[in-house]
Design a protein that fits this description.
Length: 273
């Protein structure tokens, strides 16, 4: 019987046998030798056996067993039946150290596979985290841009309302009411050459058409600009003419081609009452 004192070539062989036992590849004689050696409490061989078991456990998670197909099973059985007796005898006569080396190489490949899979998995996780971080960063940039756009719109609206309040509340401002037969209405506030028009319930102009405000003085119309209403039929329109609007001026709104015209051509949709 080989030495079991934990030293020499025999012990090195037993340590390899411990690794191979984890794979279930030992023949009965080698298994009995290893069992007797382990009963003596060799710590090195016990560690080798535990290490082999750990590798096999990790490999079991990576590679699920698969049953061969019926056709493949039949081919394997036919090939086994045709093996020459000399091949089987040569295999039985193969030195134990060769078998041990082959099994140890298989274990080494298993370890490399485990480590390779772990590295690949870690890299994949890092790539996923990087992709998520980039997506979050892009989303944050988009949200910031949208917030800035809303803030700018609110600031413009606040400034416009402030100007409207100043114009409407001016002591010298004249209030003028406009109306239509359809129920739409407006109120204008005139101060010098400036006019503010607040419209309600006036449907949006048709395609390629616009509303145009006029100040008619002595029968002669002066354009105060073009505007359109929103989806709720409202508009807040401000204009500044080249000269002050006379106190006897009459205000009117007509429907004109897009961009406006020098003189009114379309129907009157709002007229001063």
């Amino acid at each position: 019987m080989a030495s079991t004192d934990g030293s020499g070539d025999a012990h090195g062989e037993l340590a390899n046998l411990a690794w191979i036992e984890a794979l279930g590849a030992l023949d009965p004689a080698d298994r009995a030798r290893l069992a007797a050696h382990l009963r003596d409490g060799c710590p090195a061989c016990l560690d080798a056996l535990r290490g082999g078991n750990d590798v096999v456990a990790k490999l079991a998670h990576l590679f699920a067993p698969a049953e061969p197909s019926t056709a493949l099973r039949a081919r394997i059985e036919r090939a086994s039946a045709r093996r020459a007796p000399s091949e089987g005898a040569a295999a039985r006569r193969a030195p134990r150290r060769v078998r041990i080396a082959s099994a140890a190489s298989w274990v080494a490949l298993g370890v490399a596979a485990v480590l390779g899979y772990a590295g690949w998995r870690q890299a994949a996780l890092l790539r996923d985290e990087l992709s998520s971080a980039r997506a979050e960063q892009a989303g944050a940039r988009t949200a910031l841009a949208q917030a800035e756009t809303r803030a700018e719109a609110l600031e413009r609206d606040r400034a416009e309302l402030s100007e409207l309040l100043v114009a409407v509340g001016a002591r010298e401002a004249r209030g003028i009411a406009l109306a239509s037969e359809t129920g739409a209405g407006a109120r204008a506030f005139v101060t010098g050459e400036r006019v503010v028009l607040l419209v309600h319930d006036l449907a949006s102009a048709p395609p390629e058409r616009t509303y145009q405000l006029w100040a008619i003085e002595g029968g002669v119309p002066r354009s105060a600009g073009v505007f359109d209403t929103d989806a709720e039929g409202r508009a807040r329109f401000r204009a500044k003419l080249t000269a002050a609007i006379r106190d006897d001026a009459v205000l009117a709104v007509t429907l004109e081609p897009a961009g406006g015209v020098p003189q009114p051509t379309g129907p009157i949709v709002l007229a001063q009452r």
